[in-house]
Automatic annotation (TrEMBL):
One of its GO terms (cellular component) is plasma membrane. It comes from Duganella guangzhouensis. It is found in: Cell membrane. The keyword Cell membrane applies. This is ABC transporter permease subunit. The chain crosses the membrane at residues 12-34, 72-96, 108-129, 141-162, 183-208, 243-264.
Amino acid sequence: MNPNLSNRWGNRVIFGATVLAAIAWVAPLLWILALSFKPNELLAQRTDILLAPPYTLKNYSDILGTSLVFRWIANSCVVAFGQTVLVLLLSSLAGYGFARTEFPGKTWLYRLVLAGLAVPQTAVVIPLHRMFADWGLHNSYPGLILPGLAAPFGVFLMTQYFRAIPRDLEEAALLDNASRWTVFTRVILPLSLPAQATLGIVTFLSAWNDYLWPLISATQSDHYTLTLGLASTQTNFAQSEGLGFLMAQAVFAAVPVLVLYAFFQQYIVAAVAGAKVRQA
């Protein structure tokens, strides 16, 4: 068989498999979006008519009509952005320390950080609740932000990325009488933008979608995050009697995340591509 013909058919098979995988991934999202524009009364009878009328914006108007919804959005933005910025700062500093400096107990401390990857959030909920209650931090922004700053994955990611940066660049800057802080901020950090963007996206998504800790820490409605606030508006029969409203909530909460991902996707692709090159 002609090698060129074989390669052509192989490329077509790969392309077809990619298209099928993309359809399988997008179909549930389109289903959720379509249901969000359907009247709840119709969805209580059947859910197989997605493209046919009638359509309605009532589900979204009901969300925006909730008196505290914009306060919940503001709370989620403060918590998600605050947690993301602090995790990037702490993870970058810790990662640089593990990757470029030597100090007693470095290996054991790094292993201890990696051990944190195996600890689930639910295992520390009770100690966190008691500690934050003693400190009086429940129903506050610090109470919602601080637990997320323990980010062993972020330290691991930044450590590995900093180790892959050639030491020659750092040594050249040190020979020019640059301080360690100058080298870190002017040389190392700009080269780590893809890794920081990836870590920022992961941290933001985790903070934005977090439900368990806000459910425990925020007991007053004006301190709810968006996920907790939207859940509080659901009735006991939301899935059967308010399916359209439920889907509209999912779309409403996902839009900021989609916008953020669209803005930073080039950095995420660069980080993945860089990881593949280093592995090769």
